[in-house]
Each structure stands twice: as structure tokens, then as C-alpha cells.
Amino acid sequence: MKTLKELFYSKDHEWIMIEGNKAYVGISDFAQHALGDIVFVELPEADEEFTTGDVFGVVESVKAASDLCIPFSGKILENNQVIVDNPLLVNEECYESWMILVEITNKEELNYLMNEEEYKEYCSKEK
Amino acid sequence: MLDNLKITPLYNCYKEYGGKIVEFAGWAMPLQYQGIISEHEAVRNAAGLFDVSHMGEVEIKGADAAEFLQNLVTNDVSILKDNQILYTLMCYENGGIVDDLLVYKFSDEYFYLVINAGNIEKDILWMFECKDLYDVEITNSSSSVAQIAIQGPKAQKILQMITDINLDDIKFFNFKTDVLIDGIKCIVSRTGYTGEDGFEIYTQIDKIENIWHKLLNIGSQEGLKPAGLGCRDTLRFEACLPLYGNEISKDITPLEAGLAFYVKLQKNSFIGKEALLKQKREGLKRKLVGFEMRDRGIPRHGYEVAVLGVKIGEVTTGYLSPTLKKNIGLALIDIKYCELETEIEIVIRGKSLKAEVIDKKFYKNNYKK
Fold first, then answer.
1. B204-262, pLDDT tens digit by residue?
2. CA spacing 20 to 30 A to B148: which of B187, B189, B284, B316?
């Protein structure tokens, strides 16, 4: 499973790229591999607000629909229309395929995310 | 999680090709190898190879074999010549469906039934219940028969490379016995569950691995790929072939499922005839239709179908169709809304999304008739 050193990761297999008080969120290689071919992505609009754990969108594979849960509280600044129009990009390049850009409500919550090492270990246990 | 599941004679081959194993009807089967969409496209454009050894095979032998079957199934067994195959349903007295199956005729006194993996025990029990005084032997041969299916426009070309007879001699819905595939004796039929030309191959369980590997080796240059249950479902769905548990079940009759063609009400008698005649006379209250999404969303099995917020039925199967590249589905709905172009709603995650009734023959099949 591919991971990137500079990213953080959630228990739901999302990756988070922090830029000041904003963060990009996508799904990890582990997640896209487990899902198989991704055929549909539904994302929230700008200005929608979520609390940690809330469902912010849906990613659908050929066989099933899966909720996307936000790994920290925040307000949506942008969603990535490119992957809404071409969901297979998430399989092809998951770390380039950000889904939402979020304004972070409370930076303390980021402490609950995993770094690359912790995430790799988490994945190895998850079978 | 995958303990206590049954495995087929080809189980050890899955991993070699990257098989992702899941549970299906109590079996550990490959959902996909390379990916559902690429396997689906391979079957439509070249060929795909399926392990279907989990399916059930039942031998019906005896002086009353033909009569027993004529009473058991809805279609007309008497039209079969030797080496011909019939698709049919078996019904309960109330017209609900026990299973759909293929009937292979070897002779007037010997038939082979191919039934769904998830229904093997139930079907066998049912057949014994229906045996009555018919002079017939019912044998469950499922555990001694392995089956694979090669499907797609290149299926014949690939299979021919290792087959002794001319495959042109096996016509659609016919079969031959003692066909040598890579020197191994097999029963080969021109049948399938994908809407493409192709063959189903039956042989002994200790020989199937050889054939599997050989076909994938020689076939890869023609584009042959191993194919899993994921694309098996998307392919049959596009071809409007029913799946037990989705379009057909004990609570759905063949008439409601649009399978009246396989119900010969003019037969003297068969189990379920009275109930089906009555339903035909009174008119159907619900029917299976095809539909296409007009709002953006993927319909799936079990989703509610509504009109102006009122439930009128359910989606039986739905997908983003890999070949047609649109969101389509089959639904069993109130007869009032079954006309083509009727506007209906599919409820997806609590939202009513617009859809329209369309012809359920989504994909034009490529059978070699």
C-alpha cells in the first residue's frame, strides 16, 4: 500500500494535507484498493459545515456505496469537481485526487490523526 | 471470515491471478481479479473465463424422467431433442419461483439439471418432494462436477485451439459430450450468462485446473482474462438475465418477472400452472421494468421506487452500466406505472431522484444462433 510521508491519515483511510488553517482531504491507496473501481463520487457544497465523524459525501464502487466521514470538524471551502466528473481518477492517483478543501475549526482535533508510520501499522493490522 | 466457506476445485488458482475473494452463497469466490470494469469489458470485446463450479448439477434418470420434469418445470421439456438445452423455471403451487435452471437432455431417460449455487439444497429437497410415484432417480452430482464458462466474441477462437471437435458443430443451446479439451473429456454447451457468444464446460474436478491454466495461457494473446462474480452480475444485468434473489424469488412469479415466454400454460399440467393461469386471467398487479436515471445517482438492489413520494415498488438490480455508460436498473413496480416513458422516482439516500421507464433489453445480445 502506497502512502506519502508528508500526509496525515484517519482511521477511515482518508489522507489529510494540512496547509495552515486549511486542509485537503482524499482517500488513501488502501481505501481505493479495497473499494475497487470507483464509479461515482458525491461531495458537499462550499460553506457546508461538519463535525468530526459526520458523513460529508459518498464514494460508490461498482458493487456498493460507502459513506465518507470527515476526520475533523470544519467548513467546506471547495469540492473537487474534476473527480466528480471522472471518479476513476481516485483509483488511478488517489493522492492527487483531493475531494474537499476544508477550513479547520479546531486545530487540536488534528492531534487525533495518524502520521505515515502510525497509519502503515494501522493498515497492517486491518485485514 | 472466510473459514467455513465451501471452495471450488479452482480456489487455489484465484490468488495467482490476483483474485479478491468474497463470500457468495456460502462459497469463497473471486469477486474480481484485475477489476470489475476491465473484466466486464474483456468479456464484451474479447473473452472472459469464469469459475462457475459452485453451480449445482442434478442428474434425473429413469423411465419417467421426461414426465417428471414436464410436471416440475414451467417450460415444455417435450420439445427437446437429445443434446438440446432448455431454460426454464420451477415454481411452487402458488406460482412463486423455486429456481431458474437449465435442462440438458441426454436421452428420454436421462437429463442433467444445472441449478443456482445458493439453491442447491433447497432445490434437491423440492425435487424429492415432487417425486411422488414417478419412476425416477434424482442424484445431486454437484460436488463431483467442475464447471467453467468462457464468454465473449473470441471465446470460440480461443477454446478451439485446444478442442478436438469443430466448435461450429455445437449450436446455441445445444451440447456435446466426450469433447476433448486439452485431451480431457468434457461436456461442452453453447450457453452462458453474459449476453455474448460462449461456452460452458463441465468436467471432473481433478482435471479442471489444467484446462483453466491452459486457456488463460493460450488465450491471453487474444485478450482472455479471468473474470469474477462482480462482472458476472454486471454482464447478465445488461443482458436482462434474471438473478435469483433479485428479479426472481419465491415471492415473484415468472409472469411478473417478464418470463412468460418460458411458461407454457398450454402444457397439460405442471406445478404452479393453476396459480399462473389465474394470475394471467386476472391481470398482473406488478411487473418488472427497465429504467434509466434522469437525475445523477446510481440505483441499487433494494432501493425504493416511488411516484410523487408514494412507494410503488423496489429496484431489483441497478448499476452504472459499464458498457452502456449510463445509470440504469430493473425494478418490480405497480402495473399502473409500467408503460415506457413513465416518470418514476428512485429514492437514493433519502432523496427522490428522477428516472424514466425504458425497454429492459438494455444490451443487444450477440448469441450465435
1. 999 999 999 999 999 999 999 999 999 999 999 999 999 999 999 999 999 999 999 99
2. B316
**Domains with residue ranges and CATH for chain B:** 11-52+144-238 (3.30.1360.120), 285-358 (2.40.30.110)
- Burial class of residue B293 (count of CB atoms within 10 Å of its CB; 0-12, 13-18, 19+): buried
A41–chain B nearest CA distance, Å? 9
Q: How many CA atoms lie within 13 A of B201 on its CB side?
A: 33
Quick one: which of A101, A104, A82, A120 has its CA closest to A1? Answer: A120
Which residues in chain B come in under a pLDDT of 50?
none
Residue percentage of chain A with pLDDT more than 90: 98
User: In angstroms, what separates the C-alpha of B3 from chain A's closest C-alpha?
Assistant: 14
pLDDT for the residue numbered B3: 74
* Count: domains in chain A: 1
CB contact under 8 A, A37 and B37: yes
Name the percent of chain A in helix, strand, coil, to the closest 5: 25, 35, 40
The pLDDT-based confidence of A126 (bands split at 50, 70, 90) is: confident
A49 φψ region: left (φ > 0), alpha (ψ -120 to 50), beta (else) = beta
Q: What is the ipTM of this complex?
A: 0.90
Q: Which helix (H) or strand (E) holds B71?
A: helix B65-72
Q: Is A63 close to B37, i.e. CB distance below 8 A?
A: no
CB atoms under 10 Å from CB of A90, counted, come to: 23
Residue of A nearest to B38 (CA): A37
pLDDT at position B82 is 98
Q: Residue B365 has which C-alpha cell?
A: 445480445
What is the domain range of residue A100?
A: 8-107
